[in-house]
Amino acid sequence: DAKTTQPTSMDCAEGRAANLPCNHSTISGNEYVYWYRQIHSQGPQYIIHGLKNNETNEMASLIITEDRKSSTLILPHATLRDTAVYYCIVRVAISGTYKYIFGTGTRLKVLA
Amino acid sequence: EADIYQTPRYLVIGTGKKITLECSQTMGHDKMYWYQQDPGMELHLIHYSYGVNSTEKGDLSSESTVSRIRTEHFPLTLESARPSHTSQYLCASSAPAPLGETQYFGPGTRLLVL
Predict the structure, then answer these.
(1) Contact: B44, A102; criterion CB under 8 Å
(2) For residue B60, what pLDDT is reported?
(3) How many Å lie between the alpha carbon of B114 and the closest alpha carbon of chain A?
(4) Min CA distance, B83 vs chain A (Å)?
(5) CA distance A107 to A7
(6) Which one of A37, A80, A111, B12 is separated from A96 by 20 to 30 angstroms, measured CA to CA?
């Protein structure tokens, strides 16, 4: 049962910022939001994660709304190699560890 | 980032054969996971392990079995492959809690059962 909803697909011009939205209205207070991407059905690649504060790393920025019901992944200068399926995931605690609940993701196409 | 390996990357096999998909990681991570992904679909957790001699079933019912005899190794076995087992199988491991338990994935094994 996916806890996130994302648009099925998006296009972005090369060099522009790609803003990928995600709704997670049923998220609990201690559940993290993770973003991964998957290129050509390879293994998912970790991008970034957060709980309530905005986060930034060398790949992307993550903006989480104050009520935590939605978030946006920002790729500041998209390149053709950023074309992939992007998954917004809620990490849920299970006994002794965590599991990721994947949705169907957003297929981002970066256009030249 | 974890170094995590899966072999084979692609496997085409006939119905009824026994297969083992290998997964190994070199980071000393205690927790490891197997996910199944059908083409164009989301990943589903099928097995996980807290550490040596620990195996647990995930959300998606699977006829596969796993073992964890060594920390670095988490193989998945299908005793008798069927066409319904055709899918991509992804292995992951996660760093310990102080490092956030982020999961790192291997490249996957694409299985086709004829």
Answers:
(1) yes
(2) 82
(3) 21
(4) 20
(5) 8
(6) A37
